[in-house]
Write a structure and sequence with these properties.
alpha+beta; four-stranded mixed β-sheet; globular; nine-stranded mixed β-sheet; about 325 residues
Length: about 325
């Protein structure tokens, strides 16, 4: 079995200020690792003991799985509720004395709003005693800020490949992490189910089942504590904690506010115009079911050609320079 596309490395840039980010990095719409930024006291303060004491015993909803590769589509995990300090203690250990399913189970927290149906994740609201330890880089546009999400995971936890519709930065506070990204233009090779790829193991994919994955180009980086990864909207990413990991994810709106679904508290619903277009496309495909197979094939190809001619960018540029 052949290997997927050759792995490329994401650029690491040191000591970036606001002007450099806004004029030289952000316009390229390309992922970059920013190293040497001052993330604040969190870099030294956030030990297991400190997090347990400062974060307290408020209940949090966590993913619990026997597998390191968490699969959103097939749901190989369960949601459970734990006090935050207990979660920190468990996630920082390789084996559990108290557990839900088995001693080697793994944990992953993606902090939510107080009422996830109505409230957006905001570390200042959910974890005010920890929020003061973080310096959010000044290039984040405060007037477009959407959410600030605390993420915490056991060593080895790997999240499914997916895209977000907003620009974001991942502030890696504690632990090392590996991230693999794919360009939005590789979407046709990733076997999507909604905003997620159905290819769970991107390092050893089943190329008989997913042959087109060979054409996708992965971009990799290894994040050190204190690193900041810029992930432009629509870039697919697969992230793995190599150690007990704590990070803060900052999302902001790249498009005009009216483009986003006002009821979206997670920030992962497609822009409203795109959602409408996808609905129309599905209805159009449904219409073709009335035709014999050879006609469906012919008019399906015509639709694809027209969409490609009207919407595809003419030349994908490699901004990783």
């Amino acid at each position: 079995m052949e290997n997927p596309g050759e792995m490329k490395q994401i650029s690491v840039v040191h000591g970036v200020d606001k002007e450099t980010f806004n004029t030289e990095i952000y316009p390229k719409r390309w992922p970059v690792v920013l190293r040497g930024l001052d993330l604040g006291p969190c870099q030294t303060n956030w030990t297991v003991q400190y997090l347990c004491e400062a974060g307290g015993s408020q209940d949090v909803k966590v993913h619990v799985s026997p597998s390191a590769k968490m699969d959103f589509i097939n749901k190989n995990y369960a949601y459970r509720t734990l006090p935050f300090d207990e979660l920190v203690r468990r996630a920082s250990k390789p084996r559990q004395e108290d557990y839900f399913f088995e001693p080697d189970e793994l944990y992953y927290l993606r902090a939510l709003g107080n009422d996830p149906r109505k409230d957006i994740a905001d570390i200042n609201t959910q974890f005010p005693s920890l929020a003061g330890d973080i310096n959010i880089p000044d290039f984040v546009p405060q007037d477009k800020l959407f959410s600030s999400v605390l993420r915490l995971g056991s060593p080895g936890v790997q999240l499914w490949t997916h895209y977000d519709v907003m620009d974001n930065i991942l502030l890696q506070v504690k632990g090392h992490k590996r991230a693999v990204l794919f360009s939005p233009q590789d979407a046709t090779y990733l076997y999507l189910n909604g905003d997620k790829s159905t290819i769970l193991d991107i390092d050893n994919p089943d190329l008989e089942k997913y042959p087109e994955f060979m054409k996708a180009t992965p971009y990799e980086c290894h994040l050190e504590p204190g690193d900041v990864l810029f992930i432009p909207a629509l870039w697919f990413h697969n992230v793995q904690a190599l150690e007990f990991s704590i990070a803060v994810n900052i999302f902001w709106k790249h498009l005009e506010a009216k483009q986003y679904d006002p009821k979206d508290t997670y920030g992962n619903k497609d822009p409203q115009a795109a959602a409408r277009a996808l609905q129309i496309m599905r209805r159009a495909v449904k219409c073709l079911e009335e035709l014999p197979e050879e006609y469906r094939d012919f008019y399906g190809r015509r639709m694809v050609m027209e969409i490609e001619n009207k919407t595809y960018m003419k030349d994908g540029k490699d901004g990783n320079t």
